[in-house]
């Protein structure tokens, strides 16, 4: 007789592990911050005194040593591993998405629908943000003494961001910069990621319109292989996500606590409230009436991508998770999801557009700059364009905010006022960006065939 086998216990889903890491990091960090443990040094823990010859770290707070020596490097290593694979993933996903459509008419139809939904949702986001910041006027209630302290604390970093904004292209130059004169250079810079995407689109179009030959077919299958290898490697890296998320949240909580969020509470509440309304109301209505997709099913399916977006504050770093969620949880056609999500990681930043609009008006209120309706409309339009052109990396929108401030006569150095709370808001708006990418993919998928021959795995 054979002994009955015990069924293997199902592994805990990754998003639960990420949630646990998020919660533990946040709670432990807040405990350390509010109990004063972040000020303890090895001297306090047993040594009689800090004497000459001791290691340099011996007189520094223990938590500071842990943050700078363990948690921050580990979090940065995780992001670096993701970003290392983003260029091959982005290129191969976009080329594969274009070639799987099979003809230029499908590309044009899906591309125009993606662009239209992106502009529509970004416009609604910015209008919602501007209405809320005009109604609640958070910039009018900031304590001048507190504001001056925050400005002085962030002066050096704010100046660096302002200088970055002065080097950014605008208007016609921004459009021209989408066409790269050096593909390798475009691939090496987050600021030029749109140029790399343009090259990938053209490369995919070239494969589609070329006569099918053994060489072209080998090239196409090679790029599909590059995509599969990139996803496999990222799948290995993603296993580190719960630990990296713990590090991110511990660092944030132990260094800042809730103090900064409370001190700029009105501004944070307006931005966060507008982001929540846009996510739960605008997306739900768009999914229901445009995409014919159940909002409940959608939000249940994308929770892992939302957690990853909040933790990393990067649309690009969340792209692999978003691609997998679109396939496994939402059941979207792969050729559509690969195209829309890859484009959307940079070009559909409607949460960022909302943040930029609210921040510009907030700073205008603080500095007493009266903006006319025409100027606010200009701010709205530039925010929509800025959302499309903003790099999908942490804090990538700050130079755009400084640029818009300078355009409407608001001192751009004022961004120093919000630098302390920017990371929390960056995490929040990235959730909206990634959710919007997946929402647009679901809407674009309406009316598209569920599968094509290229969507299905090859038979042995």
Automatic annotation (TrEMBL):
Its main location: membrane. The keyword Membrane applies. It is a multi-pass membrane protein. It comes from the Bacteria. The chain crosses the membrane at residues 18-36, 77-98, 110-133, 191-210, 231-258, 264-290, 377-394, 400-421. InterPro entries: Na-dicarboxylate_symporter (IPR001991), Na:dicarbo_symporter_sf (IPR036458). It is found in: Cell membrane. It comes from Luteimonas soli. It holds the Pfam family SDF. This is Dicarboxylate/amino acid:cation symporter. Keywords: Cell membrane, Membrane, Transmembrane, Transmembrane helix, Transport.
């Amino acid at each position: 007789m054979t002994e009955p086998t015990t069924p293997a216990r199902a592994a805990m889903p990754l998003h639960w592990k990420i949630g646990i890491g998020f919660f533990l990091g946040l709670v432990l960090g807040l405990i350390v911050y509010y109990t004063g443990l972040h000020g303890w040094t090895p001297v306090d823990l047993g040594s009689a005194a800090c004497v000459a010859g001791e290691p340099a770290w011996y007189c520094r707070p223990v938590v500071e040593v842990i943050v700078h020596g363990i948690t921050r490097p580990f979090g940065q290593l995780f992001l670096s591993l993701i970003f290392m694979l983003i260029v091959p993933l982005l290129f191969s996903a976009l080329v594969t998405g274009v070639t799987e459509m099979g003809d230029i008419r499908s590309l044009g139809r899906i591309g125009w629908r993606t662009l239209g939904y992106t502009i529509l949702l970004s416009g609604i986001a910015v209008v919602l943000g501007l209405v809320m910041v005009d109604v609640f006027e958070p910039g009018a209630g900031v304590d001048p003494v507190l504001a001056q302290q925050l400005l002085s604390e962030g002066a050096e970093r704010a100046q660096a961001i302002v200088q970055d904004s002065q080097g950014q292209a605008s208007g016609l130059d921004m459009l021209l910069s989408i066409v790269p004169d050096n593909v390798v250079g475009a691939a090496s810079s987050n600021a030029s990621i749109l140029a790399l995407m343009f090259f990938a689109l053209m490369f995919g179009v070239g494969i589609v319109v070329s006569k099918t030959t053994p060489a072209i077919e080998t090239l196409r299958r090679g790029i599909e292989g590059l995509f599969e290898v990139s996803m496999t490697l990222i799948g290995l890296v993603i296993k580190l996500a719960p630990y990296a998320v713990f590090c991110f949240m511990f660092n944030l909580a132990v260094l800042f606590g809730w103090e900064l969020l409370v001190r700029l509470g009105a501004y944070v509440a307006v931005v966060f409230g507008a982001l929540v309304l846009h996510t739960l109301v605008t997306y739900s209505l768009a999914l229901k009436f445009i995409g014919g997709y159940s909002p409940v099913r959608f939000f249940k399916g994308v929770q892992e991508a939302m957690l990853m977006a909040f933790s990393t504050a990067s649309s690009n770093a969340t792209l692999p998770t978003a691609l997998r969620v679109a396939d496994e949880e939402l059941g979207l056609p792969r050729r559509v999801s690969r195209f829309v999500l890859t484009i959307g990681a940079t070009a559909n930043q409607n949460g960022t557009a909302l943040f930029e609009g609210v921040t510009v008006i907030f700073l205008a209120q603080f500095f007493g700059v009266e903006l006319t309706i025409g100027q606010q409309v200009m701010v709205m339009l530039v925010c929509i364009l800025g959302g499309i052109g903003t790099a999908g990396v942490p804090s990538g929108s700050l130079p755009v905010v400084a640029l818009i401030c300078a355009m409407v006569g608001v001192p751009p150095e004022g961004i120093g006022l919000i630098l302390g709370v920017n990371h929390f808001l960056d995490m929040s708006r990235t959730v909206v960006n990634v959710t919007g990418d997946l929402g647009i993919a679901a809407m674009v998928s309406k009316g598209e065939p569920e599968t094509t021959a290229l969507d299905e795995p090859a038979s042995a």
